[in-house]
Design brief:
With 182 residues, the protein is mainly alpha-helical. The protein has one domain: HUPs (Rossmann fold), CATH 3.40.50. The chain contains six helices and three strands. Helix 3 packs across helix 5. The longest helix is centred in the N-terminal third of the chain and has 19 residues, at 23-41. It is extended.
């Protein structure tokens, strides 16, 4: 393994006004650092530590604030096709990882940018998911399972499903339902 040290903190503090969320720039800088270093050492695969809760939080952030149904897959080819990102902890929940880390006495490397800002949308979503789990134990597992069981024809994305060309089976007898007069 390699430890890559890069001063992204100064760049983020310089570019992002006080009181604004630093997450988007910080994550882009980290990814850029990883991809650059991977190129330098000839690596084509990177393992990241995202877990099930990160994936669900990202899904809801994208849906609530970005208007897209997407998250972070366990395995992803980079847009340029040169690297593959794997997330070996994708199916593990955060609480189990935390308990294991404490048991093994892994060191925690603090970051005074990530998660320490007030009113972060990710923190709000995290609290929402935790509240749902408290009220209905097992709900987050069911939601994560839903991300693995997508039915494109039951959504509304014309790029995933050809609704316009959809026709009935020619052998079926046509019948119409007048929903206005039900």
């Amino acid at each position: 393994y390699h430890i890559v040290e890069k001063d992204t903190y100064s760049v983020v503090k310089e570019k992002i006004p006080e009181g604004k969320t630093t997450c988007s720039l910080c994550s882009r800088l980290r990814r850029g650092t990883l991809y650059t270093f991977a190129d330098e050492i000839g690596a084509t695969k990177m393992a990241l530590g995202h877990h099930r809760d990160d994936i669900l939080e990202t899904f809801f952030l994208n849906m609530f604030y970005g208007g897209t149904l997407k998250a972070m897959p366990p395995k992803l080819r980079a847009d340029d096709g040169r690297n593959v990102v794997i997330r070996p902890l994708a199916y593990c929940n955060e609480a189990d990882i935390e308990a294991y880390s404490q048991l093994k006495e892994f060191p925690i490397i603090p970051c005074n940018l990530c998660g320490s800002q007030e009113n972060l949308q990710r923190q709000v979503v995290k609290e929402m998911l935790q509240d749902w789990e408290r009220k209905s134990p097992g709900r987050t597992e069911i939601m994560f399972r839903a991300l693995q069981n997508v039915v494109p024809s039951q959504l509304a994305d014309r790029n995933l499903f050809d609704f316009q060309s959809l026709k009935i089976d020619d052998s079926a007898t046509p019948r119409f339902l007048d929903v206005m007069n039900l």
